[in-house]
């Protein structure tokens, strides 16, 4: 069963999500966090940074595993997810850099990258809490709609819808990488708790299908209905199609 927490707007969503993450870190200082990129979690990271600076939360023992990274991109490329995470989160908190893990997009040996990332996540005991955004087409990480749910880390061809959605961050649409490494759906489901953040009307269909649609790999996020500890924090616009279903 998915627990839905209603937020007034992006700021409220971010604060509520950051509350859940900081509670996890306070209760288990050496916890393993799965982290996401994209616009959705930026406000959550901002809030966590603020609380860190006030001395309310300490990341010194936390380990992190990021969901995804573009294929064939250098870590210091401003479009890479390595760069994104440093800029929006890691550079501002006291996390130990050796505890930070993002798939090695610059390594084009797919088998090596995927096997080593899966081993690291498994050796860490999987994530205590996995933070997710959701794509307009229901993707989680870069697990795109498909005929089957993926298992471990793999390299995917991005859909036109995702390329188009992500092109806002690039100068030209043809600059958006066509492939990406992503944690698999099974690995995401191995997390002990999952927190999804979603805002804006563009996410309304995906949020509805994730929470109330059939469980199908055509909407990868729908598998979260089968997890025992999922919280979705979403604003009113993202919940627009769920109105009749909310308590
Ligand atoms: O938060 P955004 O920018 O809408 O992106 C949603 C999802 O898409 C991705 O950025 C991948 O396209 C995910 O990492 C993210 O969770």
Automatic annotation (TrEMBL):
A GO molecular-function annotation: identical protein binding
Source organism superkingdom: Bacteria
EC number of the protein: 3.5.99.6
Keywords carried by this UniProt record: Carbohydrate metabolism, Hydrolase
InterPro entries: Glc/Gal-6P_isomerase, Glucosamine6P_isomerase, Glucosamine6P_isomerase_CS, NagB/RpiA_transferase-like
The reaction(s) this protein catalyses: alpha-D-glucosamine 6-phosphate + H2O = beta-D-fructose 6-phosphate + NH4(+)
Single biological process term from Gene Ontology: glucosamine catabolic process
Catalytic residues as annotated in Swiss-Prot or TrEMBL: 68 (proton acceptor), 137 (for ring-opening step), 139 (proton acceptor), 144 (for ring-opening step)
Occurrences of domain Glucosamine/galactosamine-6-phosphate isomerase (ranges): 15-229
Coiled-coil portions: none
GO cellular component labels: cytoplasm
The protein's annotated pathway: Amino-sugar metabolism; N-acetylneuraminate degradation; D-fructose 6-phosphate from N-acetylneuraminate: step 5/5
Family the entry assigns: Belongs to the glucosamine/galactosamine-6-phosphate isomerase family. NagB subfamily.
Biological role: Catalyzes the reversible isomerization-deamination of glucosamine 6-phosphate (GlcN6P) to form fructose 6-phosphate (Fru6P) and ammonium ion.
HAMAP family found in the cross-reference section: GlcN6P_deamin
Protein name as annotated: Glucosamine-6-phosphate deaminase
Organism annotation: Collinsella acetigenes
Lineage, highest ranks first: Bacteria, Bacillati, Actinomycetota, Coriobacteriia, Coriobacteriales
Gene: nagB
């Amino acid at each position: 069963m998915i627990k839905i927490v209603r937020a007034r707007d992006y700021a409220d969503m971010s604060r509520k999500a950051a509350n859940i993450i900081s509670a996890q870190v306070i209760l288990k200082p050496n916890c393993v966090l799965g982290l996401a990129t994209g616009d959705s979690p930026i406000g959550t990271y901002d809030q966590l940074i603020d609380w860190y600076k006030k001395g309310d939360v300490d990341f010194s023992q936390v380990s992190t595993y990021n969901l995804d990274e573009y294929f064939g991109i250098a870590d210091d490329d401003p479009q890479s997810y390595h760069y994104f995470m440093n800029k929006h989160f890691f550079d501002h908190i006291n996390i130990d850099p050796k505890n930070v893990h993002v798939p090695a997009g610059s390594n084009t040996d797919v088998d090596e990258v995927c096997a080593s990332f899966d081993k690291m996540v498994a050796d860490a005991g999987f994530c205590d809490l996995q933070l997710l955004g959701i794509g307009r087409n229901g993707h989680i990480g870069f697990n795109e709609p498909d005929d089957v749910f993926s298992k471990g880390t793999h390299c995917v061809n991005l859909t036109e819808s995702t390329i188009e959605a992500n092109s806002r961050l690039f100068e030209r649409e043809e600059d958006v990488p066509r492939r990406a490494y992503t944690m698999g759906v099974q690995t995401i489901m191995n997390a002990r708790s999952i927190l999804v953040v979603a805002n804006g009307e563009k996410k309304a269909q995906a949020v509805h299908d994730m929470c109330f649609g059939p469980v199908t790999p055509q909407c990868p996020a729908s598998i979260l209905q089968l997890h025992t500890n999922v919280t979705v924090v979403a604003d009113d616009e993202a919940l627009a199609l769920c109105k009749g279903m909310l308590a």
